[in-house]
Amino acid sequence: MSERLVEIGVGAFVALGLAALLVLALQVSGLTELRQPPGYEVTATFDNVGGLREKAPVSMAGVHVGRVESIALDPETHQARVTLRIERGYDSIPADSTAAIYTSGLLGEQYVGIEPGWEQATLAAGDRFTETQSAVVLERLIGQFMTQMQD
Amino acid sequence: MTGRLQALGRATLDGLQALGGAVLLLGRLLRGATVVLVRPRLLVEQVYAVGTLSLVIIAVSALFVGMVLGLQGYYTLVDFGADDSVGTLVALSLVRELGPVVTALLFAGRAGSSLTAEIGLMKATEQLSSMEMMAVDPERRILAPRFAAALVAVPLLAAVFSAVGVIGGYLVAVGMLGIDGGAFWSNMQSAVDVTPDILNGVIKSVAFGFVAGWIALYMGYTAEPTAQGVSRATTQGVVRTSLAVLGLDFLLTALMFD
Amino acid sequence: MTGDEVLARVRDLRFQRGRRWIFDGVDLDIRRGQVTAIMGPSGSGKTTLLRLLGGQLRPHGGSVQVAGQEVPRLSRPELYRLRRRMGMLFQSGALFTHLSVFENVAFPIREHAELPEPLLRALVLLKLEAVGLRGARSLMPAELSGGMARRVALARAIALDPVLVMYDEPFTGQDPITMGVLIELIRRLNDILGLSSVVVSHDVEETLAIADYVYVIADGRLLAEGSPAQLRASDSAAVRQFLDARADGPVPFHYPAPGLAEELLDGEGP
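^ Those are the sequences you sent over. The predicted structure of the assembly is below.
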């Protein structure tokens, strides 16, 4: 009887430990390889992505609609090519929408915000945002401000 | 003058000898640990003693630590308008540092000390000696399964600690301070990665389990076979394990996140 | 029993602890089928001798042979194989405190043989019956009296049917009835199971009552040897002091110290 209890106790302990690891992997780190949310990918080209990171949120009107999948440098145009994964259910984004990089709060994370356009046609898998707005780089902003002051 | 020099020399030699003994014991523990493959029952009993019975203290501590992190993180971040990132702060602190370290410290106090006392008493009452005379190797039969159990239990306990701690942070941040639950999780998920963050946390906890088990068993096995000797070994075991864990944590952090 | 055949042979045994020689050239023979007693004052290294025979300690000189094998030169597996044929009763009993009486006796059998449970149970109950404690099988060691604990330890020591059983101070701290029981047991097990026994003790009467041959050790040397009758007839001063329990004699009552008057008048130190 007590042997049985010991075994049950160990079984429960190991199961709990593994479950905790799973929680850490899925819920805390949002492991995408295991939990690939179905949806579709679109790309956007920016002159400068600033501090944008992979897995940063993509939102529309403040609502979470997807994630940044990857960020790469286009070898010819020397621009940043950002792949966004839009979650299933948000498949009516107008084709002429603008993708912009914003910062949440003064020191917060950077994210991609989508400003909807007016066209009837919608974005589909593999499409590209025609309108983009790069990240605001603080140093550049200050630099512009200084030159204007001198004028 | 020569007396002091002699004392220093003796202390050095004794220290080196103890270190050598500990390393030799470690080698035998590692070799002996294969016994759990042949007789898994030995491991099960010990995992119960050091793992299952430590769950409650680990879970309760983790809940409180997570809640405190949530509060402190919120009060600091809210000044910068970045209070949505409190989930990131809670999760990163727990997964990278507090989970493995606090678990190892609690383990040393709860399970390591009882390992030391148990082995020390078995030695003092000649149980280990009599086992040897029965042609049963006590290092393989008694010490090695306990070492293996510490190696298995500490990483699992650390995972439980981190997970429960995150839940504690969630309860405070979302339930009490009114942060949006979606923002809490999505900020956390975009900042925490499986590699390196979670993987490094797991590696740390394995290393801490290794050190905690090794020191606890060594202290018990070399304890002076008297009541005083066993109690001293138990205290010293906890102190040395704690110091070793904190020192090792610095080393590992420096190596992992450079 | 032939009585002459030697099971264990110790020659010119030398062993030191710190700077003190515990043994400084001791010769002993342990003959098959006999109860050999080793007597001597406390601290004369009797327990050390058993540990040397069992290979738990290595001598600094001389030879220790058991069953024709030179114990200090055995490899670990060889030593463990030899130990399966030895049983040792520790002074404290050294029962495993977390196991019941039954499991304590079953322990060495479980470790060395994969027996089906009913057979194991029969074996353990037989061993417990031999020491008269079959009824106590489900007790825990903490519930046993000192004498009972020693009997359980004895059952455990003979669990693997050894050829040599070593008893470390079996009579110390026992009431007269328990002592009688233990004497009876040691003798009976020796004769019925065809064992050879080594009894280390400083209890003179009890030891002389069961021994076939006695060695007296003091100050690292062999003081006397012979059958109990020969020893009783001995007129050596040292043997007489030990046998007649005289406080002072060749073995001094006082631990070496400066003169009493000197030290009292001096008035220093602890």
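The mean pLDDT of chain A is 84. Residues 96 and 117 of chain A are 5 Å apart (CA to CA).

Shout if you want it in another format.
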